[in-house]
Amino acid sequence: MPEASADTVALDTKMTSRDVKVHYGDKLALKGVDLEFRTNEVTALIGPSGCGKSTFLRCLNRMNDTIGIARVSGQVTLDNDHIYGPNGIDPVLLRMRVGMVFQKPNPFPKSLYDNVAFGPRIHGLYRDKDHLDEIVTKALEKAGLWHEVKDRLYEKGTGISGGQQQRLCIARAIAVSPEVILMDEPCSALDPIATAKVEELIDELRENFTIVIVTHSMQQAARVSQRTAFFHLGEVIEVGDTEQIFTAPTQQLTQGYITGRFG
Ligand SMILES: Nc1ncnc2c1ncn2[C@@H]1O[C@H](COP(=O)(O)OP(=O)(O)OP(=O)(O)O)[C@@H](O)[C@H]1O
């Protein structure tokens, strides 16, 4: 079920995709996805394994460019600017504006401070050491990690717990002031307490960012998102307000998935 056409895009729309298809070699993995992502909203992408959620997420910041056999067609916009094509936003700048948090926490083998300072350093986003300190502190505060790590900023980022590592990765993503944060199953490697902290954080981050999250957990989608898109075999079957999708889906396939009949 496609979203509104390009000429009816709402004012608070941050990103859109139109007829986005992805081939891996000869295999068509995404069959033409139309979606919109609104400012200050969390959109959850749900659906059975292999339906194309991660493939689609990677289209939103051109991460599929790093996969040799992947071919993307269609249009994706960020603030109405195209991200693909000859006049597309520069991919390095795009990935700064559209950050990503992965399934498995992947801190660099550097200090906590250097992990968070990494993006601001490579993009030259700070004036002097005091300014960089401020950026690092604020990012760690926003990621809800500051109080836990403020006395060990120069210890290795890999030496903290898995849940803390994931919040460190979120701090690293936030440090370059992105507008959109993509999260690919960010809690799948975390225990329930760490998961609850990250979910709480996602809700707080919504105030400042547009968030798109892939999740296998329908409870998580229901808890953290305002909009949900249900994918099946490379297509979006249904998209709508999260409450509607989970309480009154219009499509039988959606109903079957959320009631656990398949997936
Ligand atoms: N790098 C790749 N090379 C070839 N095929 C791929 C690649 N990545 C994904 N695919 C295929 O594309 C389809 C969609 O995969 P994708 O990982 O996007 O699905 P998903 O919904 O995110 O799955 P999961 O929930 O299991 O992570 C699958 O058939 C998968 O095998």
UniProtKB/TrEMBL annotation:
Instruction: Indicate the segments forming the ABC transporter domain, all copies.
Output: 15-258
One Gene Ontology MF term: ATP binding
- A Pfam match is ABC_tran
Does this entry carry the keyword Electron transport?
A: no
Record's keyword annotation contains Heme? no
Q: Which keywords fit this entry according to its UniProt record?
A: ATP-binding, Nucleotide-binding, Phosphate transport, Transport
The cross-references to PANTHER family, in alphabetical order and at most eight, read:
ABC TRANSPORTER I FAMILY MEMBER 17
Q: What is this protein called?
A: Phosphate ABC transporter ATP-binding protein
Q: Which organism is it from?
A: Magnetospirillum sulfuroxidans
Ranked from the top, the taxonomy reads: Bacteria, Pseudomonadati, Pseudomonadota, Alphaproteobacteria, Rhodospirillales
